[in-house]
Amino acid sequence: MDIIDLNTARRPAGQLPPGMLRKIGWGAAAVLLLLIVYSCFYTVQEQERAAILTFGKYTGESRAGLHFKWPYPIQQVVKVQAVRVQQTTIGYRQSGDTITPVDEEALMITGDENIVSADAVIQWNVSNIRDYLYNVENPELFLRNAASATIRSVIGSQKLDYAITDGKTDIQDKVRANLLELQDKYQTGIQIMDVKFQDIEPPGGQVEEAFREVTNAREEKNTKINNAAKYENERIPKARGEAQALLEKAEADKKSRILNAEGDVAKFNAIYEQYKASPDVTQSRLILETLEKILPNAKIFISDSKDGTVKYLPITELLPSSKPAPQQGNPGGSAK
């Protein structure tokens, strides 16, 4: 026999069991409480900064880590990639390895009314979150427009030949300075890190080829100038060294000759003092010393011929012979 619950049998169709609404209410409250508690905590990544809004008004900023806030709508958090260096391209767009030219940004007129194509990259980050979020409606679009206008203004004051050759660095510096001035004037909260031009060149075709030849010629000219300067830097020090060596040698010769001359003067003065003391003896000695120098191997004989007669003396015959005398004796016998 089946047992039938009378309470269930008497309950109308579609009516919930007693206490079910209370359980549903407690469950919904618990889920809502968990959602509220979960929304009170938020995490800021290393490259991010978070702006804290209390009733829609900026009241603070938090850095990397886990933080607490009051649940919405009391407080809410807006995260910004503030630390990471970001890039804005002018004249082209890049998606992965695909590069798409944007001619309306790249083409511009130079100061001498020529057309040039300029591609640039603006590197920036967020320096002030409050200014970045509330002073400008779209800061990145403002930066792009400001960069494009600044580049046109700077290149519009330069000649084409200068812009595509030696003026690239100067133009970059001027664009960066003007962009910094604009960001500071409008307080966008953006800090310009660097401005780099990828290309500054005339449009394609024969014009580009002609200017490429001009650029190559200029580079060749600079190369030759650098080589000449290198040769000059090598030769001038060497020539200076050689000149200094000649001067030092001349100075040494000068001192040597002065010392020799002083020695000769001292020697002459000494002989002159002796000559004053005994002229005849000194004169004879000087003559003999001179003859010894002129005729070092000659034999000199001095004779007196005051009586006017010429004396002949066979002195050389009277002198002993320097050759040894031949030995006399019987062959094979003993000497006597």
Automatic annotation (TrEMBL):
Alphabetical keyword list: Coiled coil, Hydrolase, Membrane, Protease, Transmembrane, Transmembrane helix
InterPro entries hit by this protein: Band7/mec-2_domain (IPR050710), Band_7 (IPR001107), Band_7/SPFH_dom_sf (IPR036013), HflK (IPR010201)
Main location: membrane
Keyword Glycoprotein: no
Compartments where located: Membrane
Molecular functions (GO terms): peptidase activity
Claim: Transmembrane is one of the keywords in the record: yes
Domain Band: 39-219
Gene3D superfamilies linked to this entry: Band 7 domain
Signal peptide: none
GO biological process terms on file: proteolysis
Pfam entry (one): Band_7
Any one GO cellular component localisation term in the record: membrane
SMART domains named in the record: PHB
Assembly with partners or alone: HflC and HflK may interact to form a multimeric complex.
Entry-linked NCBIfam families: hflK
UniProt similarity note: Belongs to the band 7/mec-2 family. HflK subfamily.
Record-given protein name: Protein HflK
